[in-house]
């Protein structure tokens, strides 16, 4: 069913407007969407400090952490693109991208990782998994 790979990618795109992470900041909680993550990562004028403010306000990420995180974002976007063409490869790439972002966030937040997850993140992960398992298709 090539249609399922396509639909799962559409659902992931729709999850971009939902909160992916709920970051504790100054006694409150700030919701971060995937669109905000893209904006801070790609368009930040504050360098690495600006790109990582939502990951951990108390520390600055290293260049290695930034590269790994940027790789995860790129894989999610490539997974959506290939998923829109149908098949399993796109959602498979997306699952790996979400897994990479998971490792970065888990590294930063440790045991508190599950408290920072938002609906958008869970929807994107589940959509990619469904598209990968039942996506069908041969090439893409």
From TrEMBL:
Entry annotated with the keyword Transmembrane helix: yes
Keyword Membrane: yes
Transmembrane segments: 63-85, 92-109, 121-137
Protein name as catalogued: Amino acid permease
Organism of derivation: Thermococcus piezophilus
UniProtKB keywords: Membrane, Transmembrane, Transmembrane helix
């Amino acid at each position: 069913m090539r249609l399922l790979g396509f639909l799962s990618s559409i659902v992931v795109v729709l999850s971009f407007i939902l909160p992916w992470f709920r970051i504790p900041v100054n006694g409150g909680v700030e919701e971060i969407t995937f669109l905000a993550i893209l904006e801070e990562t790609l368009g930040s004028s504050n360098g690495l400090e600006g790109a990582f403010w939502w990951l951990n306000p108390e520390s600055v990420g290293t260049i290695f952490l930034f590269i790994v995180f940027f790789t995860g974002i790129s894989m999610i976007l490539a997974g959506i693109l290939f998923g829109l063409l149908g098949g399993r490869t796109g959602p498979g790439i997306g699952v790996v991208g979400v897994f990479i972002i998971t490792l970065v966030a888990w590294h930063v937040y440790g045991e508190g990782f599950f408290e920072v997850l938002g609906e958008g993140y869970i929807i994107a992960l589940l959509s990619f998994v469904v598209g990968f398992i039942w996506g069908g298709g041969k090439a893409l």
